[in-house]
Every structure is written in C-alpha cells, then in structure tokens.
Amino acid sequence: MAEKTHESKKTIPSYMKALSGSLGGVMEACCLQPIDVIKTRLQLDRSGSYKGIIHCGTTITRNEGVRALWKGLTPFATHLTLKYTLRMGSNAVLQSAFKDAQTGNLSHHGRLLSGFGAGVLEALVIVTPFEVVKIRLQQQKGLSPELLKYKGPLHCARMIIREEGILGLWAGAAPTVMRNGTNQAAMFTAKNAFDGILWERHEGDGKLLQPWQSMISGFLAGTAGPVCTGPFDVVKTRLMAQSRSGGELKYKGMLHAIKTIYVEEGLRTLWTGLLPRLMRIPPGQAIMWAVADQITGFYERRYMKNASL
C-alpha cells in the first residue's frame, strides 16, 4: 500500500526547478551587483582607502562614475543564471536520490547532503571561473579603459589563460567549494524549515506561497551561510585576485592564506566584507525565491495537483 502511495505522488520536474532558479538569478544580479562590487573592493583594500560601505560606494562613484558599481555585471549575471540553474536542478536530483524508497519522504540528513552536493557542484563547474574573472575586473580602478589591464570578461579570461594557464581560472577553488557547499546545505534546509514554521507549508501539501512570503523565508534562510563561511569568502577573494604572472604568489593555498591573513592582519580580517555580504546574500535569496516559487507554483497550478515543491 505504501508503495502504491509513493508511485502516485507527483513531484515538480528538476528542469522546472532549474528554470525557476535561472530566472531568479537574472533578477538578483541586476538588483544587487553594486553591493557585490563594494564587498570585493573592501576585501581587497589593504591600505585602508575605504572607511566603510557607504564611503566605498561614494568613492567609487566619485572617482570612477556610477557605472563602475556595475563592473563585472556581465560575468556576474551569467554566473548567477548558470549557478542557480545548476544549483536548483542538481539539488532536486539529489533530493530525489536521497528520498525514502517506500514513503517518498526526505530526511533532514538527506536535505543537508543534497544542498552540500549542489553547492560543491556549482562551485567547481560555475562559480570559481566566473568569480575569478569578476574579481579581476572589479579590483581594477580607473576611468580610462585603455589604462586597464582587462578590457572585458572575455579579454580577462583569455589573459588569465595565456599568462597563468587554464587552472588560473580555478584559483581559490578549495575555499569556494567549502563556502558554497556549506552555504547551500544551510540555505535549502533553512528555507524548508522557515516555510513550515512561518507559513505552515510543507513539501507535498500543494500550498502556494505569496511572493512576499517567499521573500521573507528566503531572506532568513540566506543569513546563516555568510556568518559561518566568512573566512572562506575572504580567502577565496584573495586567492582569486592574485595573478600568477606577477612572480611569486603571496598565498600558497587556502590554509596558508588563512594563517597569513590571521598573522598579518588579525582574526577580524577573516570576516571582512561580512556586512555587505549580509546586505547582498539574504536580499538576493529573497528575490530569487520570490521568482522561483512563483514559477514552480505556476507549473503546479497549470499541470499538476498536490505536487511536491
């Protein structure tokens, strides 16, 4: 009898969840790119040029123009779109694999592993090479394009490959894997928990959340990861920003970078950029989930009944 119930239980296809993530990623990138630029500049500022988030933003605008706050938007938007497509799709596939064969239910352990696996996959396939290009573009200062080393995303990628080899695009892969794996394990688990606590919505009940409800759940779910993974994000940025073409590298790897930053700059430096990350990631998750939940909800209303979200 249990087997029959399991066979009749419908789920939203993985490709629909992937599509919902990609459209949510486009919206997030366009809205929140300036905060990401400011976060990167603060993390790379060793001379104390910027006094804080507002000062950094106004300094960039005054010296480089308003458009500088959207530097790296093309790789950032492309990266977010591909990342969310892979994240949402792979998480759905992994969740299906971890579900109980008899009941079709997903345990908390299975949800955590699914999120971590999706985060690791997106870090290796999408996030690392795109963020290397984005950070190299964002760290450039100046108004005159002819004075900049990198003229654009494609030119930047070609220069990195020419000067540092193809592996140069995967600089900082280790901390990126740790950051994204932990982030997604926490995010998917927290989103499901907040949906249940706040809105009494549970997988398989067919209840559709309003956009504002999805935004609140997504915002809250996006807060835990940045606090836990701050050091990985700082180390990732430092490793990605250093060029192998300039001679000996300051940081030899993830653990060496953590030790060097701690010794030279103090423990608090490992959480540099936490506030702008909290200004960007939770709102980003709010925007993404508002879009994603509506798309999967439309599919459910149009083609299914009692689908598992």
TrEMBL record:
Pfam families according to UniProt: Mito_carr
Domain of life the protein comes from: Eukaryota
PROSITE patterns (UniProt xref): SOLCAR
GO terms under cellular component: mitochondrial membrane
UniProt KW keywords: Membrane, Mitochondrion, Repeat, Transmembrane, Transmembrane helix, Transport
SUPFAM superfamilies: Mitochondrial carrier
Membrane topology: Multi-pass membrane protein
Compartment(s) of residence: Mitochondrion membrane
Repeat (Solcar) residue spans along the chain: 12-97, 109-197, 209-298
Mitochondrion in keyword set: yes
Record-stated family: Belongs to the mitochondrial carrier (TC 2.A.29) family.
Protein name (Swiss-Prot/TrEMBL): Mitochondrial succinate-fumarate transporter 1
